[in-house]
């Protein structure tokens, strides 16, 4: 889900982000506009919008007595497979069916389980989602489950390159690439040569949104788990031939401007602004979209997006899910010890993955 860098546009996008209506910010926020100019896009958007409006959270809504993890991946790639390995009820059956309107229900898996995770001295309630690769719709689904489930940690996952390190994303940017999502129909409205803002009414100082994590604890747990799984594999390829380690990825990066960045920024923005409704799935035709408002303040809840090598699937899904569980457990364990998470800083990024002009 990574796209080529268009760095020259970042400065202009930062200026655009500062043109929001500050006077109305406490009450509501506008978000990405979906291009419904074509008949195919209009039909797909109508289906997505109806699904989002009618969606009811499926994970437990009872008060939490144990640590809670909200875990997401994307359908038809390694992260969806790993999430389904952790919580089988979240698996999406069948393969990709191209052509025509894509029914969101066929590309969504939701399930929950009580699990023991490494580094946590208690059972953990896990709410897992395998998400459609869909602009704004994926974010709506995450936020609906988040507000009902009230997690202690939100761990979102997507794919990057074929073979590389696992990337812990230090943050996200208020910018989207004008490109079709997994439906091959829906894209943000705007000039394809430019980025468009995810939340146009966000203030200029919120153009960059740091994630919140116990970075060292999670990174070290991931490295240790990779080392333990290093020789797993077959046919002359082992796990550590595909997954080289765990590193920190900076922001903004033009290469991280697709649906992965969409859910990272949008979910983080709404978590940090419980006082306002944020409108998602608005269309260029003027549809009202969906207003999302959380019932409590989640600004102190750790959240991160993790990019994984896509060649984890199909041979290394089990090993990858072990690394995922180790990192999730490390964050929950850190919270239990009083190790408070911190906001991501670009200065901590791998030098090859720094955001801004050095990327």
Structure description:
The protein has 359 residues and is an alpha/beta fold. The chain has a single domain (7-358), classed as Aminopeptidase, CATH 3.40.630.20. It has helices spanning 10-17, 39-54, 78-86, 137-149, 215-228, 239-242, 259-272, 317-336; strands at 28-29, 33-34, 68-74, 109-116, 123-131, 153-159, 164-169, 171-173, 176-177, 195-196, 208-210, 212-213, 233-234, 237-238, 243-249, 277-280, 282-283, 290-292, 303-308, 342-343. The longest helix is centred in the last third of the chain and has 20 residues, at 317-336.
Rg over CA atoms, rounded to whole Å, is 19 Å
Strand content: 15-25%
Integer tally of domains: 1
The CATH homologous superfamily name equals Peptidase C15, pyroglutamyl peptidase I-like
Structural class, judged by helices and strands? alpha/beta
Q: Tell me the major beta sheet.
A: 7 strands, mixed
Order of helices and strands: HEEHEHEEHEEEEEEEHEEHEHEEEEHE
Query: What is the CATH topology classification name?
Result: Aminopeptidase
The top level CATH class name: Alpha Beta
What integer is the average pLDDT?
89
Topology:
Blueprint: H1 10-17, E1 28-29, E2 33-34, H2 39-54, E3 68-74, H3 78-86, E4 109-116, E5 123-131, H4 137-149, E6 153-159, E7 164-169, E8 171-173, E9 176-177, E10 195-196, E11 208-210, E12 212-213, H5 215-228, E13 233-234, E14 237-238, H6 239-242, E15 243-249, H7 259-272, E16 277-280, E17 282-283, E18 290-292, E19 303-308, H8 317-336, E20 342-343
Parallel strand pairs: 1-16, 2-17, 3-5, 3-6, 6-19, 7-15
Antiparallel strand pairs: 4-5, 7-19, 8-11, 9-10, 12-20, 13-14, 16-18
